[in-house]
Amino acid sequence: MAAAILRRVTHTTAAAAAAATPRVSPLPLLARGISDSTDTITVETSVPFMNHIVDPPSRSVTTTPHELLTFFRDMSVMRRSEIAADSLYKSKLIRGFCHLYDGQEAVAVGMEAAITRRDAIITAYRDHCLYLARGGDLVSAFAELMGRRDGCSRGKGGSMHFYKRDANFFGGHGIVGAQVPLGCGIAFAQRYRKEGTVTFDLYGDGAANQGQLFEALNMAALWKLPVILVCENNHYGMGTAEWKASKSPAYYKRGDYVPGLKVDGMDVLAVKQACKFAKDHALENGPIILEMDTYRYHGHSMSDPGSTYRTRDEIAGIRQERDPIERVKKLILAHDFATAQELKDMEKEIRKQVDDAIAKAKESPMPDASELFTNVYVNDCGLESFGVDRKVLRTVLP
Amino acid sequence: MFEALREALIEEMKLDPTVCVMGEDVGHYGGSYKVTKGLAEMFGDLRVLDTPIAENSFTGMGIGAAMKGLRPVVEGMNMGFLLLAYNQISNNCGMLHYTSGGQFKIPVVIRGPGGVGRQLGAEHSQRLESYFQSIPGLQMVACSTPYNAKGLMKAAIRSENPVVLFEHVLLYNMKEKIPDEEYICCLEEAEMVRPGEHVTILTYSRMRYHVMQAAKTLVNKGYDPEVIDIRSLKPFDLHTIGNSIKKTHRVLIVEECMRTGGIGASLRSAIIDNFWDYLDAPIMCLSSQDVPTPYAATLEDATVVQPAQIVAAVEQICQ
């Protein structure tokens, strides 16, 4: 049942996507049948888009009850998973670095709603929810976090290295900013092969000052690569506030000759609208920057309490005023697409799913010792791993 | 040699439409060493991409394109410039296949001229073999003749693994007759240059020519050196090297890398680990001095190994 609920049918990207064929994914808790409704409603985004050398898209976004409920469900799964990961980390089942995405779910979910699985997404290390949005399953995600054999990278990548090739999700990168040129390379390949698809190249406000970003942007603009640079601006680069790191925190304007939009990243409909607009723009005119104004409730990673450089009031305030899940919930309740009790039941069901997935992931064993040497090279020459002395290196682990 | 490299590129680009070239001045300028001359006219601007001067990001772009299914050949105008792309080469190129659990392969070729040239100055005379050596997931080869340049370039392009192909600034104008038929050199094999009985001399790239020059003198003096061009810098071809050591029992390594942490240092360890019982004398390793390459001609000559030193070393080993 977990798999059924999480299965996402590929979207089309026609302008009337909201009125497209109803999707298969069942929402069994909602007995009233509203979940399958494709009657469109129009909602205004929370704030207008701020724009830089491009006319912004309209503030009015069309959506359907089904879509809103899907947003609610997907974001709740992500929120629940990240909180669960927090507990797992504190119980020392997840080690090393763990960067959590709670608060930022609207970016992942809104983006996914605007594109297809043939479009590519690449991001940095805050990648668990992007993986889930791209169709990754909970068991593989938790198994990877715990370093088990059934993880999405066979336990060898860890939190910062989630990938899903068949869904065109390119990871999962630990070094700040290094993924931006990679994303432009993916877009280059898309243009080279005339695929008609785009790449969403995500980075943070901290990475926005990396030189390689501007180098890559220059090349993308020169060759009109279909890449969309998405700055997930959560206002803090680890412990450094954006105004302390960037002379110009208007990241959507920093492309200079590249157009940009600033989007309320906590409003999933605004994200969806902007991403759809950006995809059309990129296919016609080359790169565009989207700055998602978002927020992370956790610290930079699990080793950062997140309160030494910002006040608890600030965090609580954002949670109160701008939480993405609450916003969608209010919209659903206001339009009477579900009752509060039904949504609560849904949340309970999701909690159970996540717990079940964790239990299943815990059963997965550690990778076999021989896995140390597999996948270092593509198995071309019949060798699995070789050092300078061309011997297949094997070691006996105690 | 540049024509051989170019021929290899043309042949592979004709065979496989996903092979593309990117680098500074590779397109309309024809390449700073003419390796890509004429390719842009043949294959178009997208397949032979002139990049801005941004090594870090165009190497990253090449790697991203490889993740998505292309087979880019990334040129560093001088190998030393690729130090700017070290993060991309190490973390993304070398490690992505592993950290993704085998999902993505990175079939890039990273190539460019390195080595000490004619008074090019310290920053343009670097030998990056030693810096890239430890990166897991990379393969490294060094070409030294037009024949093996073409063969290794073709093999590198066809390999599913990332390969760094080290060319040498002073060898581009070498001429040699090479076969018309298609051929490929094995990436992991060493080349027997001159069979012999008394001592095994292991070398690669430009130093091969210094060794062969020294060999003439040595032959006149009555020695019979066996010269092997190791070609594959990572992994070493210990099969060929081992067979040679089992025959001669004496080893001299002649390289252009620095003494500290160079290819010779690793090769020496590998030989000691595997062939200790076969050695009759300590392994000698002649490397460049651990100094920035000076501009003055006499000083530059003293930085690298010269044939006279090789002769003296062989005489010492064979005592």
UniProtKB/TrEMBL annotation, chain A:
<comment type="function">
    <text>The pyruvate dehydrogenase complex catalyzes the overall conversion of pyruvate to acetyl-CoA and CO(2). It contains multiple copies of three enzymatic components: pyruvate dehydrogenase (E1), dihydrolipoamide acetyltransferase (E2) and lipoamide dehydrogenase (E3).</text>
</comment>
<feature type="domain" description="Dehydrogenase E1 component">
    <location>
        <begin position="73"/>
        <end position="369"/>
    </location>
</feature>
<dbReference type="GO" id="GO:0004739">
    <property type="term" value="F:pyruvate dehydrogenase (acetyl-transferring) activity"/>
</dbReference>
<keyword id="KW-0560">Oxidoreductase</keyword>
<keyword id="KW-0786">Thiamine pyrophosphate</keyword>
<dbReference type="InterPro" id="IPR017597">
    <property type="entry name" value="Pyrv_DH_E1_asu_subgrp-y"/>
</dbReference>
<dbReference type="InterPro" id="IPR001017">
    <property type="entry name" value="DH_E1"/>
</dbReference>
<protein>
    <recommendedName>
        <fullName>Pyruvate dehydrogenase E1 component subunit alpha</fullName>
        <ecNumber>1.2.4.1</ecNumber>
    </recommendedName>
</protein>
<dbReference type="InterPro" id="IPR029061">
    <property type="entry name" value="THDP-binding"/>
</dbReference>
<dbReference type="GO" id="GO:0006086">
    <property type="term" value="P:pyruvate decarboxylation to acetyl-CoA"/>
</dbReference>
<comment type="subunit">
    <text>Tetramer of 2 alpha and 2 beta subunits.</text>
</comment>
<dbReference type="Pfam" id="PF00676">
    <property type="entry name" value="E1_dh"/>
</dbReference>
<dbReference type="InterPro" id="IPR050642">
    <property type="entry name" value="PDH_E1_Alpha_Subunit"/>
</dbReference>
<keyword id="KW-0670">Pyruvate</keyword>
UniProtKB/TrEMBL annotation, chain B:
<dbReference type="GO" id="GO:0046872">
    <property type="term" value="F:metal ion binding"/>
</dbReference>
<keyword id="KW-0809">Transit peptide</keyword>
<keyword id="KW-0934">Plastid</keyword>
<keyword id="KW-0150">Chloroplast</keyword>
<comment type="function">
    <text>The pyruvate dehydrogenase complex catalyzes the overall conversion of pyruvate to acetyl-CoA and CO(2). It contains multiple copies of three enzymatic components: pyruvate dehydrogenase (E1), dihydrolipoamide acetyltransferase (E2) and lipoamide dehydrogenase (E3).</text>
</comment>
<keyword id="KW-0670">Pyruvate</keyword>
<dbReference type="Pfam" id="PF02780">
    <property type="entry name" value="Transketolase_C"/>
</dbReference>
<keyword id="KW-0630">Potassium</keyword>
<comment type="subunit">
    <text>Tetramer of 2 alpha and 2 beta subunits.</text>
</comment>
<dbReference type="InterPro" id="IPR009014">
    <property type="entry name" value="Transketo_C/PFOR_II"/>
</dbReference>
<dbReference type="InterPro" id="IPR029061">
    <property type="entry name" value="THDP-binding"/>
</dbReference>
<keyword id="KW-0479">Metal-binding</keyword>
<keyword id="KW-0786">Thiamine pyrophosphate</keyword>
<protein>
    <recommendedName>
        <fullName>pyruvate dehydrogenase (acetyl-transferring)</fullName>
        <ecNumber>1.2.4.1</ecNumber>
    </recommendedName>
</protein>
<dbReference type="InterPro" id="IPR033248">
    <property type="entry name" value="Transketolase_C"/>
</dbReference>
<dbReference type="Pfam" id="PF02779">
    <property type="entry name" value="Transket_pyr"/>
</dbReference>
<dbReference type="GO" id="GO:0004739">
    <property type="term" value="F:pyruvate dehydrogenase (acetyl-transferring) activity"/>
</dbReference>
<feature type="domain" description="Transketolase-like pyrimidine-binding">
    <location>
        <begin position="1"/>
        <end position="174"/>
    </location>
</feature>
<keyword id="KW-0560">Oxidoreductase</keyword>
<dbReference type="InterPro" id="IPR005475">
    <property type="entry name" value="Transketolase-like_Pyr-bd"/>
</dbReference>
<dbReference type="GO" id="GO:0009507">
    <property type="term" value="C:chloroplast"/>
</dbReference>
